[in-house]
Design a protein that fits this description.
alpha/beta; FAD/NAD(P)-binding domain; Enolase-like, domain 1; 3 domains; five-stranded parallel β-sheet
Length: 399
């Protein structure tokens, strides 16, 4: 087995890359190995449903760092083979091909997988999801050959693909089980704005319309809704959210609750095991609950905190989350979390396609949605950091 003073990272995405970079920048000289299930070096995922889908590009354009960077920083990669077993008692892990490694410190950066739907026809050729480079490489030629596209889910990915496919002149129908688009991530006024934008560009949005079945014999030919409406489809994209890849951690005996449970320093209950990025659930004093975030900011910042912990200079992770989505010529930038807001206010004119919506709770700003207004977004992040920190402090005082 490998050196017992080594750091092993399971997963080769943005969080894993940042963890490796931060460890080397922090002075770690021990062997550092990243194990990835995909055959690619760490790459950017947000462009997958945006420019990588709509513009001809090669996978290397998504890489966070070129191969030479990792070689120069003495970071070893084992790609294309997943980890099958983690044994915390022995400080070891085993790949599915039988190779075994020992570690001193271990970090899970396993990310998420597309949430599956259990409906008839889900395994038919012509049904896709978008989580990886290979997903998009399969989807792109299928899109080129399709006329009628049905997208199940009106979240970020669903609407981003709808914008890309609709802009290419294809007939796009979006099925959303909820009563409005983007319900899980934004407020009603912003949902109404994006609903109108898509409809004005020819996208057929069906709200309160759960998918009941996908029809076809050798390939997709139609979908059927819960209301028994049948819609023609050459291609179906399932975009109903993501689940944390925490099965491996759970099998190793680590606590998991739709995400690997970690403390504010990114450490699990096992003192030598950490977890970072989309796969984690961490405590937030700022929002008075445990959070699982799926965003680049979380992957990068939590990885930095985990590196500090491994290097014996621990810091506390309690971020102001931020997210973004590109649809047509619109950029939606979200700062904070609007869950539980008591009131909201529109700043600017939605008709101009440049405005923001502020959300408040207990008289403090907790979130802002900004459309085509980068300045409002940046100012919001600063204001939310100050005001939610004060809110957390007042709660502590009461407790």
């Amino acid at each position: 087995m490998s050196n017992r003073e080594s750091v092993m990272v399971i997963g080769a995405g943005q969080a894993a890359a940042q963890l490796a970079i931060s460890l080397r920048q922090g002075g770690l000289t021990a062997p550092l190995t990243v194990i990835g299930e995909e055959p690619y070096l760490p790459y950017q995922r947000p462009p997958l449903s945006k420019k990588f889908l709509s513009e001809p590009r090669t996978p290397d354009t998504l890489l966070l760092r070129p191969e030479a960077f990792w070689r120069d920083h003495d970071v070893a990669f084992h790609l294309g083979t997943p980890v099958g077993i983690v044994d915390p008692a022995r400080h070891s892990l085993t790949l599915t091909d039988g190779r075994e490694f020992a570690y001193r410190w271990l970090a899970f950066a396993t990310g998420t997988s597309a949430r599956a739907l259990r409906v008839p026809g889900i395994s038919l050729p012509g049904v896709f999801s978008v989580r990886t480079i290979d997903d998009v490489l399969r989807l792109r030629p299928a899109l080129d050959a399709a006329s009628h596209i049905v997208i199940v889910g009106a979240g970020y990915i669903g609407l981003e693909v709808a914008a890309a496919a609709g802009s290419e002149g294809r007939h796009v129908t979006v099925l959303e089980a909820e009563e409005r688009v983007l319900k899980r991530v934004t407020g009603a006024r912003v949902s109404t704005f994006f609903d109108r934008i898509h409809r004005d560009r020819g996208v057929d949005i069906r709200l309160g319309a759960p998918l009941a079945a996908i029809e076809g014999e050798r390939a997709v030919t139609a979908v059927r809704t819960a209301a028994n409406e049948r819609l023609p489809a050459d291609l179906v994209l399932i975009a109903v959210g993501a689940r944390a890849n925490d099965d491996l951690a759970a099998a190793a005996g680590l606590a998991c609750q739709d995400g690997i449970v970690v403390d504010a320093t990114a450490r699990t209950a096992h003192p030598d095991i950490y977890a970072v990025g989309d796969c984690t659930r961490f405590p937030s004093r700022r929002y008075s609950r445990a959070l699982r975030l799926e965003c680049v900011q979380n992957a990068i910042d939590q990885a930095k905190v985990a590196a500090a912990s491994i290097l014996q200079t621990p810091a506390v992770y309690d971020p102001v989350p931020w997210f973004w989505s590109d649809q047509y010529d619109l950029k939606l930038q979200i700062a904070g979390l609007n869950d539980g807001h008591e009131r909201s206010a529109v700043i600017g004119d939605p008709q101009s396609a440049r405005f923001s919506v502020e959300y408040q709770c207990d008289g403090r700003l907790i979130a802002v949605d900004a459309i085509n207004d980068a300045r409002a977004h940046m100012m919001a992040r600063r204001r939310i950091a100050e005001q939610t920190a004060a809110l957390a402090g007042s709660r502590d005082a009461v407790a």
